[in-house]
Amino acid sequence: MTNGECDKRGVHEIREIRQFHFTGWPDHGVPYHATGLLGFVRQVKSKSPPNAGPLVVHCSAGAGRTGCFIVIDIMLDMAEREGVVDIYNCVRELRSRRVNMVQTEEQYVFIHDAILEACLCGDTSVPASQVRSLYYDMNKLDPQTNSSQIKEEFRTLNMVTPTLRVEDCSIALLPRNHEKNRCMDILPPDRCLPFLITIDGESSNYINAALMDSYKQPSAFIVTQHPLPNTVKDFWRLVLDYHCTSVVMLNDVDPAQLCPQYWPENGVHRHGPIQVEFVSADLEEDIISRIFRIYNAARPQDGYRMVQQFQFLGWPMYRDTPVSKRSFLKLIRQVDKWQEEYNGGEGRTVVHCLNGGGRSGTFCAISIVCEMLRHQRTVDVFHAVKTLRNNKPNMVDLLDQYKFCYEVALEYLNSG
């Protein structure tokens, strides 16, 4: 969102213009899921005052994508006011005024998907000022149903989470990649795989990892499993190839579970052409931070990259959630600070737990929620988790983890 001012020549009148730019529409086709565009449409609606003039909507030709936005906007209003939708006649009416509005069958189907998701999920965003009272109400148990609003919200989330099919994960399921997967039921879909670029002998370009968007930055996170003994080399290839500046570790080193220590405590570790050099370490409460210098010895002209690993000690393996909300929020803030200081917020963050599932998803979801609070002063845990699950269904896989996201948001608000 960009704010600007314009004045009319010869007239002493200044108007504020807000430009909303949706960056998640691919060059061809439609977005894979409607979650992002729905959030965008709702944000535009919430930021447009009642007395505002007409909304200017454009894409390249002012037809296909523009038509999708307008139809979704109209249908959301119609569903709220009348309890029904009529996509067919809405598109017909638009086409009577401008040719090719909603250009393709794919766009027409996408509109139906978007409205279905909107009707099933509702608007789950909450102004920052109302989070505390709303969360209290959400946890109240209804004696008639023996359920609560937050349980029902999580049940809805599970219902609308897409299921990955075998063909969605065809690369992870290739026989040569089986030994690189810790759990054969937790696999990344082909569409969000970060393919390894650095050449290393006969090793394949596959790693069990998935690219995830943050609130403002596409593919800001790479969620992965703790490296197996045979994938440590691939892990560091991933860090180097995708310009990662932070590594967040949410589990313990445990050789019995094939979770080796993959970093040097001093000196240099060599992983094929990649060299990982220990620089420094620091312990502060529940967080060990280590800084490494990594580079490709086969390409010295590329220089080196500084990477900080944040090992979080406050989440024992027997617990579903971290021990302390305050220390987890501190972890989020330390990662954000390093990202901003070292690379202007542009570097990616690798997040891993044992299997690249619930814990990693909880970190990413809370990071997104904190970003929402900073930029929009709203909280939408449902939207944050749904966005992550669109790529990987096991993100934030427990109700207690889902509640924890709300609780850290409250901690964020309390801390100022």
Automatic annotation (TrEMBL):
<feature type="domain" description="Tyrosine specific protein phosphatases">
    <location>
        <begin position="326"/>
        <end position="403"/>
    </location>
</feature>
<protein>
    <recommendedName>
        <fullName>protein-tyrosine-phosphatase</fullName>
        <ecNumber>3.1.3.48</ecNumber>
    </recommendedName>
</protein>
<dbReference type="InterPro" id="IPR000242">
    <property type="entry name" value="PTP_cat"/>
</dbReference>
<feature type="domain" description="Tyrosine-protein phosphatase">
    <location>
        <begin position="150"/>
        <end position="412"/>
    </location>
</feature>
<dbReference type="Pfam" id="PF00102">
    <property type="entry name" value="Y_phosphatase"/>
</dbReference>
<keyword id="KW-0675">Receptor</keyword>
<keyword id="KW-0378">Hydrolase</keyword>
<dbReference type="InterPro" id="IPR029021">
    <property type="entry name" value="Prot-tyrosine_phosphatase-like"/>
</dbReference>
<feature type="domain" description="Tyrosine-protein phosphatase">
    <location>
        <begin position="1"/>
        <end position="118"/>
    </location>
</feature>
<dbReference type="InterPro" id="IPR000387">
    <property type="entry name" value="Tyr_Pase_dom"/>
</dbReference>
<dbReference type="InterPro" id="IPR016130">
    <property type="entry name" value="Tyr_Pase_AS"/>
</dbReference>
<dbReference type="GO" id="GO:0004725">
    <property type="term" value="F:protein tyrosine phosphatase activity"/>
</dbReference>
<dbReference type="InterPro" id="IPR003595">
    <property type="entry name" value="Tyr_Pase_cat"/>
</dbReference>
<feature type="domain" description="Tyrosine specific protein phosphatases">
    <location>
        <begin position="35"/>
        <end position="109"/>
    </location>
</feature>
<keyword id="KW-0904">Protein phosphatase</keyword>
<dbReference type="InterPro" id="IPR050348">
    <property type="entry name" value="Protein-Tyr_Phosphatase"/>
</dbReference>
